Amino acid sequence: MKALFLNGPNLNLLGQREPEIYGSMTLADIEGMVREHAGRHNVEVTFHQSNHEGELVTQVQQAAGNYDYVILNAAAYTHTSIALKDAITGAGVNAIEIHLTNVHAREAYRRKSIIAQACIGSINGFGVASYILGLEAAILHDKANT
Ligand code: DQA
């Protein structure tokens, strides 16, 4: 199984960005943790981060046929990007939405996810474990559907 972890804007700043909210691990630390877990489950993972909406759209489009799952922390674009939602639907990829924080327990503008409609499901609020849970969700979904 192949999974693409796509990370949106400002997630390159993890570790220094509001650590009281997002924790102290960097995106590279999270990637290492995910790779270790993926290795134990025979999952091939690719990690990518972009601050640019169009780049994320292109990545989602190119994932079609190349990855079984896109595990997506779209960050702020979660709440604004019709383009990303359309890319997931249009490319027909299996997407799982993840967030470090519980977006429903934060500012009102974070409670709405535009991409949620296009995703299989979403995981939020478990800190860096949301990435592992996203991977587990993909593994279990794959088992149930193949
Ligand atoms: C986030 C939540 C978003 O609302 C925010 O814009 C982020 C990170 C999270 O992982 O908790 O950048 O996606």
Any descriptors?
146 residues, alpha/beta, Rossmann fold, five-stranded parallel beta sheet, 5 strands, 38% helix, binds 1,3,4-trihydroxy-5-OXO-cyclohexanecarboxylic acid
Task: State the CATH class.
Answer: Alpha Beta
Largest sheet: 5 strands, parallel
CATH topology: Rossmann fold
Calculate the terminal CA-CA distance, rounded to whole Å. 11 Å
Structural class: alpha/beta
Indicate the proportion of strand residues. Answer: 15-25%
Write up this protein:
The chain is of the alpha/beta class. The protein has a single domain (2-144), classed as Dehydroquinase, class II (Rossmann fold, 3-Layer(aba) Sandwich), CATH 3.40.50. Helix content is 38%, strand content 18%. It is built from five helices and five strands. The protein has helices at 19-22, 27-40, 53-63, 82-91, 129-145; strands spanning 2-7, 44-49, 69-73, 95-99, 121-124. Strands 2-1-3-4-5 form a five-stranded parallel beta sheet, with helices on both faces. Helix 4 (82-91) links the parallel strand 3 (69-73) and strand 4. Helix 3 (53-63) runs parallel beside helix 4. It is globular and about 40 Å long. The termini are close together. Bound molecules: 1,3,4-trihydroxy-5-OXO-cyclohexanecarboxylic acid. Residues 10, 73, 75-76, 78, 99-101, 103, 110 line the site of 1,3,4-trihydroxy-5-OXO-cyclohexanecarboxylic acid.
Protein topology:
Layout: E1 2-7, H1 19-22, H2 27-40, E2 44-49, H3 53-63, E3 69-73, H4 82-91, E4 95-99, E5 121-124, H5 129-145
Parallel strand pairs: 1-2, 1-3, 3-4, 4-5
Helix pairs in contact: 3-4
Bound molecules: 1,3,4-trihydroxy-5-OXO-cyclohexanecarboxylic acid.
